[in-house]
Queue: 2 jobs
Job 1
Amino acid sequence: MKREFEVTQETIDRYGVINGDRDIIHYDAEYAKQRGFRGTLAHGLMVQGYANVVAVDTYGTNWMERGEIEVKFVRPVFPGDTVTVDLDDSSGALTASNQDGPVMVAIATLRTA
Amino acid sequence: MTRPSDIKPREGEVRGTRYEEYVTHDALPELRFTITPDVVREYAEAVDGDPAGYEHGGDKVALPSVLAPYLMAVLYRKYPPAQGGIMASNVFRFHHPISAETDTEIVADGRIEETFEKKGRKYVRYSARFRTAAGDLVAEAVNTSTFPS
């Protein structure tokens, strides 16, 4: 199962509203550049949310009762990126990638009932 | 309805916790909040999920990761955040569906698991458990984040 998600400052801001944070690394491009990034950073949990959407699409609502996901964030996601989430349901290997390569790697599996 | 912003201390509101102030094995106090259909819908829209919820046994249920916006509140209620925190890794285990149609009261708690330094960065790892008000385990999580000195 593979799906693409478009990331913009608007989508980051929208996630920030439900997330309820004020961490300026997500909203202040100048601050983010001072920290060495090329722009504001998407929330890691937003990208992980994309993975959950793909997991539900793959495993159905078994995911709600037996789903397990272990993720490692390996590269930031910036406004303008397209994140492709690819989940191999036979192994549970999940990769979220942008144009530069993997941004998040994960194992997303169902526990045995 | 409990929005994450209602219960989550936010960056810049109070002095952020310094790395040295995190106490390994410290218990994170109980946190109660209510996930409403509006929160379920708004979260789903924010991650390109189905705002109407997902069919499960004749009911509509939420993306289980609707708990994610509340995750850091478990930590931040005791250890207010510094600006510039970056998430390194996460584990979520889901056990019990959350309704997309009715309110669900959640009781969360947690614990600081460890602090450590790696490649010049300072990390905090903590665990959180989310239960219904009746005591059913909904989800468990372990978060690792790095915070600037």
Job 2
Amino acid sequence: MADRVILTIGTKKGVFVAEAAKPRRKFELRGPFGPGVPVYSTLIDTRGTPRLYASSCNPFFGMKVLRSTNVGKGFEETKSGPAFPKDDGRALINIWSLEPGGGKKELWCGVEPASLFRSRDGGDSWEMVPGISNHEHARKWQPGNGGLCMHTIIRDGNRVHLGISTGGHYLSEDGGDTFKASNQGVGAGFAPDPYPEFGQCVHKIARHEDAPGRLYMQNHGGWADWTGPGGPRPDIGVLRSDDHGRSWRSIASGLPSDFGFPIVVHPHDADTVYVVPLEPATRSCPGGAPAVWRSENGGDSWSRLARGLPKKQSYFTILRDAMDIDHLTAPSLYFGTTTGQLWIGREGGEKWECVFDSLPPIHNVKVAVV
Amino acid sequence: MGPAPTVTVHVYGQLREYCAGASQLSVSARTVRAALEDLERSQSALYRNLCDETGKVRRHLNVFVNTDNVRDLDGIDTTLTAGDVVTILPAVSGG
């Protein structure tokens, strides 16, 4: 089969799969699968024969993991989903992240309440990872507006980075056995101490495989005008680390807002990074005019990308996992909105087109070429 | 104490795939709790849809014994008598 561009689109009403030939002129839509049930995370696993995964977060009947072995023509439940041990006292509320682990079948899964699970058999059985799930901080983390969620899992050799809202950034350097809070320079706007050890509302973390130690973070910004204890916290929302996440510095200067959810790195250039600034109070597009902002120098300066996007009267939100970029030579960005639109930004976001305009509210967008 | 009464558990349509398509299951139990424990042993896939890891009935489900919601009786400790029908349904909600 010729290379195809595959999108998984997790929505409030199930998961959709869109497919196109490499020029990406026209996408064919399939689904919804797991209809009527919210999907907060998806994974296109390209290790070996492609497999698609989706978390099916049923508020009535519990959490399931769906798997497709035919590139999204159909999905089936795995034999079991992540679950806390019976004597733990916690119960799963949502599944927020699915990521590939080592080998061909290992999967990692971040859930709400913030905890980490690992499967060694492609999602059929799961074990809790105690180093973070039973961390001494775990019972002190507080839920954000989206719940107490572990939404980011980044593996980098023996290092594992986790993003927790609200818990902050945690780093393991022993393959996930033990974790330490690693939030030097990561601000919290909603606490009297602006730089606590942990408890930050990290929204998303991204990295580039060819830039060892470099990480980008979209944190919960929007606190420049705070006048209470601890004083103003300008520019705490968009950050960069160059030491494997041990310390972080602001790269938010030049953005119209340091509040946002997703952050995405260009596949061929570690200095090129994308964010979607939102109004802090409303979590929607500033002035009703959506735009993606791009830095091509690692966050030193930013430019606005809005050609083809609405110029007014658009007040949607783009959630933390609702933007991704493909790995083709001239990559396209994709984002989904809480109003059910799926947009493509061709040539690295230079030209935007609406691909689908009436899907259910979109939580998650992932793309891969298979 | 005699044998536990035999009751019928009515299975909501969407959940029948977790118990080989059965629309009704027969269990012997003196209370709703005991009926759920029976299902945990005999129909574990169905049970996981009804109760979370801590053993609680999932938050948005209602349990009825005949026509009464158990929250108006003795919760899951409501006693059962022979011939009772236990029905577990999703709460009405929209959006």
